[in-house]
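Query form — protein Arm DNA-binding domain-containing protein

QUESTION: What is the three-dimensional structure of this chain?
INPUT:
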Amino acid sequence: MAQTRSSIKSYKNKKGETLYMFRVYLGINELTGKPDNTTRRGFKTKREAEHALTKIKFEVSQGTYKSSRAETFQDVYDLWIIQYEKTVEESTFVKTIGYFKNHILPSMGNYRIEKITIAICQKHFDEWAGKVKKARTIKAYAKKVLDFAIVHGYLATNPFTHVETKVKQTYSEPVNEEDANFYTKEELTTFLNYAELHLDYKAYTLLRLISYTGMRKSEALALTWNDLNLVDNELRLSC
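ANSWER: The structure tokens for Arm DNA-binding domain-containing protein are given below.
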């Protein structure tokens, strides 16, 4: 039977508040043969941390403790980001890391994954909307982590699905007017990927055509089959 080893430590959160945490050793994992540990944080008092630690020790001694590898939003993010990195270009990955480092994790990283509610998600979206231009993008990435949590059995539903995003954004982030009406290459790719999944093929084809040729909507809608040269892969604008 494994004997737990642990120590309770204090730390400061982003607001400068003193909280408590502990990392407890649970013995050797029978599947991997490696040491098994779990970390709990976010306790407001040392007594609260001691109570949680005592409960874990008792469950381990009775053989009833069920370890969940992902217990906080940060834990799930750490698992998700490994898979996400394999699916996107490096530039997109770097930008994503920035969204989490600067906005999502400071707000939600310490939350117990099963305790995250619609009200919590709405609260933080409203905060992001009041600070930055791309609050909806940030919300979409936070939602991806909770979607990952659902797939892996940590959550039943995603509270971000019900967050109201049609709010007046009062962000103070400076906007370059010259760039305000343009997507970056990564943003355009994300947009087209989403359009391909959620729009009918005619709408998606029109958007893709406009995006990659630079033609106006009126020019694209005026095209006929006679304007298409399949031999030389050319389009002739007739308006």
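ADDITIONAL NOTE: Residues 73-174 form a domain with the DNA polymerase; domain 1 fold (CATH 1.10.150.130).
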